[in-house]
Design brief:
About 45% of the residues lie in helices and about 10% in strands. The protein contains 12 helices and 4 strands. Helix 5 packs across helix 6. The protein binds fe (iii) ion (FE). Fe (iii) ion binds next to loops.
Length: about 250
Protein backbone atom coordinates (compact mmCIF):
# COMPACT_ATOMS: atom_id res chain seq x y z
CA UNK A 1 0.00 0.00 0.00
CA UNK A 2 1.32 3.43 -0.88
CA UNK A 3 1.95 5.67 2.10
CA UNK A 4 1.48 9.43 1.92
CA UNK A 5 3.81 11.57 3.96
CA UNK A 6 2.58 15.06 4.75
CA UNK A 7 5.23 17.71 5.17
CA UNK A 8 4.28 21.24 6.16
CA UNK A 9 5.72 24.30 4.45
CA UNK A 10 7.57 25.27 7.62
CA UNK A 11 9.13 21.81 7.80
CA UNK A 12 10.30 22.10 4.20
CA UNK A 13 11.83 25.49 4.91
CA UNK A 14 13.42 24.14 8.05
CA UNK A 15 15.02 21.21 6.22
CA UNK A 16 16.23 23.29 3.30
CA UNK A 17 17.53 26.22 5.30
CA UNK A 18 19.29 23.95 7.72
CA UNK A 19 20.71 21.79 4.97
CA UNK A 20 21.54 24.58 2.56
CA UNK A 21 23.24 26.73 5.15
CA UNK A 22 24.99 23.64 6.37
CA UNK A 23 26.34 22.89 2.94
CA UNK A 24 27.22 26.49 2.21
CA UNK A 25 29.32 26.49 5.32
CA UNK A 26 30.57 22.93 4.73
CA UNK A 27 29.34 22.39 8.26
CA UNK A 28 28.21 18.82 8.01
CA UNK A 29 30.94 17.06 9.93
CA UNK A 30 30.20 14.32 12.38
CA UNK A 31 31.89 14.44 15.68
CA UNK A 32 33.34 11.05 16.42
CA UNK A 33 33.69 11.81 20.09
CA UNK A 34 37.44 11.32 19.94
CA UNK A 35 38.58 14.65 21.28
CA UNK A 36 37.22 18.11 20.73
CA UNK A 37 36.31 18.65 17.12
CA UNK A 38 39.16 20.62 15.63
CA UNK A 39 36.70 22.82 13.80
CA UNK A 40 32.98 22.85 13.24
CA UNK A 41 33.31 22.23 9.55
CA UNK A 42 35.47 19.13 9.84
CA UNK A 43 34.15 16.50 7.49
CA UNK A 44 34.94 12.82 7.41
CA UNK A 45 36.01 13.03 3.78
CA UNK A 46 37.51 16.49 3.77
CA UNK A 47 40.42 15.44 1.64
CA UNK A 48 38.06 14.89 -1.28
CA UNK A 49 37.18 18.57 -1.25
CA UNK A 50 40.82 19.47 -1.76
CA UNK A 51 41.05 17.36 -4.90
CA UNK A 52 41.44 19.74 -7.86
CA UNK A 53 40.16 17.00 -10.19
CA UNK A 54 36.94 16.52 -8.35
CA UNK A 55 33.96 16.93 -10.68
CA UNK A 56 31.03 16.72 -8.31
CA UNK A 57 30.15 18.62 -5.13
CA UNK A 58 30.02 16.76 -1.83
CA UNK A 59 27.28 14.21 -1.19
CA UNK A 60 25.32 16.42 1.24
CA UNK A 61 25.42 19.29 -1.24
CA UNK A 62 24.10 16.99 -3.99
CA UNK A 63 21.30 15.75 -1.77
CA UNK A 64 20.28 19.30 -0.85
CA UNK A 65 20.40 20.37 -4.47
CA UNK A 66 18.23 17.40 -5.51
CA UNK A 67 15.69 18.15 -2.78
CA UNK A 68 15.63 21.83 -3.65
CA UNK A 69 15.22 21.14 -7.37
CA UNK A 70 12.23 18.86 -6.81
CA UNK A 71 10.53 21.29 -4.44
CA UNK A 72 11.06 24.21 -6.82
CA UNK A 73 9.75 22.19 -9.77
CA UNK A 74 6.64 21.30 -7.82
CA UNK A 75 6.14 24.95 -6.92
CA UNK A 76 6.37 24.26 -3.19
CA UNK A 77 9.16 26.73 -2.55
CA UNK A 78 10.42 29.96 -4.04
CA UNK A 79 14.23 29.91 -4.44
CA UNK A 80 14.40 33.68 -3.87
CA UNK A 81 12.59 33.34 -0.54
CA UNK A 82 14.91 30.52 0.45
CA UNK A 83 17.98 32.60 -0.44
CA UNK A 84 16.68 35.53 1.58
CA UNK A 85 16.21 33.38 4.68
CA UNK A 86 19.64 31.77 4.31
CA UNK A 87 21.20 35.22 3.90
CA UNK A 88 19.49 36.30 7.09
CA UNK A 89 21.10 33.47 9.04
CA UNK A 90 24.45 33.90 7.30
CA UNK A 91 24.73 37.64 7.97
CA UNK A 92 22.38 38.90 10.65
CA UNK A 93 21.42 36.10 12.99
CA UNK A 94 24.13 34.35 14.94
CA UNK A 95 25.81 33.89 18.30
CA UNK A 96 26.43 37.64 18.57
CA UNK A 97 22.77 38.03 19.54
CA UNK A 98 23.00 35.54 22.38
CA UNK A 99 26.34 37.06 23.42
CA UNK A 100 24.68 40.46 23.71
CA UNK A 101 22.05 39.03 26.05
CA UNK A 102 24.70 37.35 28.20
CA UNK A 103 26.84 40.50 28.40
CA UNK A 104 23.84 42.60 29.42
CA UNK A 105 22.85 40.03 32.05
CA UNK A 106 26.38 40.17 33.47
CA UNK A 107 26.15 43.95 33.79
CA UNK A 108 22.51 44.41 34.76
CA UNK A 109 21.11 42.35 37.68
CA UNK A 110 17.50 43.24 36.85
CA UNK A 111 17.92 42.14 33.24
CA UNK A 112 19.59 38.93 34.41
CA UNK A 113 16.69 38.18 36.76
CA UNK A 114 14.16 38.86 34.00
CA UNK A 115 16.07 36.67 31.56
CA UNK A 116 16.18 33.77 34.01
CA UNK A 117 12.53 34.18 35.00
CA UNK A 118 10.85 34.82 31.66
CA UNK A 119 13.28 34.68 28.76
CA UNK A 120 10.47 34.53 26.21
CA UNK A 121 9.16 37.92 27.22
CA UNK A 122 12.60 39.53 27.30
CA UNK A 123 13.65 38.06 23.96
CA UNK A 124 10.37 39.01 22.29
CA UNK A 125 10.57 42.56 23.61
CA UNK A 126 14.07 42.89 22.20
CA UNK A 127 12.84 41.61 18.83
CA UNK A 128 14.90 38.42 18.86
CA UNK A 129 12.06 35.91 18.81
CA UNK A 130 11.09 33.87 15.81
CA UNK A 131 11.32 30.52 14.14
CA UNK A 132 13.08 27.85 16.20
CA UNK A 133 13.17 30.17 19.18
CA UNK A 134 9.55 30.41 20.22
CA UNK A 135 10.13 29.13 23.77
CA UNK A 136 13.53 29.74 25.28
CA UNK A 137 14.64 28.92 28.80
CA UNK A 138 17.88 30.46 30.09
CA UNK A 139 19.85 28.37 32.56
CA UNK A 140 22.65 29.91 34.60
CA UNK A 141 26.03 28.38 35.32
CA UNK A 142 27.19 28.73 38.91
CA UNK A 143 30.20 27.40 40.83
CA UNK A 144 27.92 24.50 41.85
CA UNK A 145 26.24 23.71 38.54
CA UNK A 146 27.44 23.64 34.94
CA UNK A 147 24.68 23.38 32.31
CA UNK A 148 25.05 21.55 29.01
CA UNK A 149 22.48 21.62 26.23
CA UNK A 150 21.78 18.83 23.78
CA UNK A 151 18.92 17.65 21.60
CA UNK A 152 18.89 13.89 21.95
CA UNK A 153 16.19 13.49 19.31
CA UNK A 154 17.58 15.68 16.53
CA UNK A 155 19.12 19.16 16.66
CA UNK A 156 16.67 21.57 18.34
CA UNK A 157 18.54 24.79 19.02
CA UNK A 158 17.70 28.48 19.66
CA UNK A 159 18.35 29.70 16.12
CA UNK A 160 17.31 33.36 16.68
CA UNK A 161 19.93 33.63 19.44
CA UNK A 162 22.77 31.40 18.21
CA UNK A 163 22.24 31.01 14.45
CA UNK A 164 22.62 27.67 12.70
CA UNK A 165 23.71 24.81 14.99
CA UNK A 166 27.28 23.52 14.60
CA UNK A 167 27.85 20.14 12.96
CA UNK A 168 28.98 18.45 16.16
CA UNK A 169 25.74 19.46 17.92
CA UNK A 170 23.85 17.32 15.40
CA UNK A 171 26.20 14.34 15.58
CA UNK A 172 24.98 10.99 16.91
CA UNK A 173 27.95 10.84 19.24
CA UNK A 174 27.32 14.18 20.95
CA UNK A 175 23.59 13.55 21.26
CA UNK A 176 24.13 10.20 22.94
CA UNK A 177 27.18 10.92 25.05
CA UNK A 178 26.18 14.36 26.36
CA UNK A 179 23.50 12.63 28.42
CA UNK A 180 25.40 9.48 29.30
CA UNK A 181 28.76 10.97 30.25
CA UNK A 182 28.56 14.78 30.27
CA UNK A 183 31.76 15.26 32.27
CA UNK A 184 33.77 13.25 29.77
CA UNK A 185 32.23 15.12 26.86
CA UNK A 186 32.93 18.47 28.52
CA UNK A 187 36.54 17.44 29.13
CA UNK A 188 36.91 16.70 25.43
CA UNK A 189 35.73 20.25 24.72
CA UNK A 190 38.37 21.51 27.13
CA UNK A 191 36.00 22.13 30.03
CA UNK A 192 37.14 20.29 33.14
CA UNK A 193 34.63 20.60 35.94
CA UNK A 194 35.71 20.82 39.56
CA UNK A 195 34.77 17.76 41.60
CA UNK A 196 32.06 19.63 43.48
CA UNK A 197 30.42 20.99 40.33
CA UNK A 198 27.36 19.18 39.05
CA UNK A 199 26.91 18.76 35.31
CA UNK A 200 23.27 19.31 34.44
CA UNK A 201 22.11 18.31 30.97
CA UNK A 202 19.12 19.94 29.30
CA UNK A 203 17.41 18.07 26.46
CA UNK A 204 16.02 20.55 23.93
CA UNK A 205 12.77 19.80 22.20
CA UNK A 206 10.66 21.35 19.49
CA UNK A 207 8.84 23.18 22.29
CA UNK A 208 11.70 24.39 24.49
CA UNK A 209 15.18 25.60 23.52
CA UNK A 210 17.82 26.33 26.13
CA UNK A 211 20.48 29.02 26.34
CA UNK A 212 23.25 28.79 28.91
CA UNK A 213 24.17 31.94 30.81
CA UNK A 214 27.86 31.27 31.51
CA UNK A 215 29.67 32.64 34.54
CA UNK A 216 31.25 36.04 34.06
CA UNK A 217 35.04 35.69 33.74
CA UNK A 218 37.13 37.13 36.54
CA UNK A 219 38.79 40.47 35.98
CA UNK A 220 36.05 41.88 33.74
CA UNK A 221 34.57 44.36 36.22
CA UNK A 222 35.50 47.46 34.22
CA UNK A 223 34.37 46.21 30.81
CA UNK A 224 31.37 47.57 28.97
CA UNK A 225 28.76 45.35 27.34
CA UNK A 226 30.42 45.32 23.92
CA UNK A 227 33.72 44.18 25.40
CA UNK A 228 31.94 41.62 27.56
CA UNK A 229 30.01 40.30 24.56
CA UNK A 230 33.29 39.70 22.72
CA UNK A 231 34.20 37.20 25.45
CA UNK A 232 31.04 35.15 25.02
CA UNK A 233 31.53 32.22 22.66
CA UNK A 234 28.81 30.24 20.97
CA UNK A 235 29.96 27.07 22.71
CA UNK A 236 29.76 28.75 26.11
CA UNK A 237 26.06 29.42 25.48
CA UNK A 238 25.52 25.72 24.70
CA UNK A 239 27.54 24.80 27.78
CA UNK A 240 30.23 23.03 25.75
CA UNK A 241 32.73 25.79 26.37
CA UNK A 242 33.62 28.68 28.64
CA UNK A 243 33.80 32.40 27.89
CA UNK A 244 37.17 33.80 26.86
CA UNK A 245 39.35 35.27 29.59
CA UNK A 246 39.37 38.99 30.40
CA UNK A 247 42.60 39.72 28.55
CA UNK A 248 41.08 38.75 25.20
CA UNK A 249 38.24 41.31 25.23
CA UNK A 250 37.82 43.30 22.01
FE1 LIG B 1 15.73 18.43 17.93
Amino acid sequence: MRKTVTVSTSQIFCILIRSSATCIRANTGRWTGAGKPAQDNAMPHDHHDDNPHRLLPSEPALRVKALETILVEKGLIDPAALDAIIDLYERDIGPQIGAGLVARAWNDPEFRAALLTDADRVITELGHGGRQGEHVVVVENTPDTHNLVVCTLCSCYPWPLLGIPPGWYKSDSYRARAVREPRAVLAEFGVTLAEGTTARVWDSTAEIRYLVLPMRPEGTEGLDEAALASLVTRDSMIGAGLPRSAGTAA
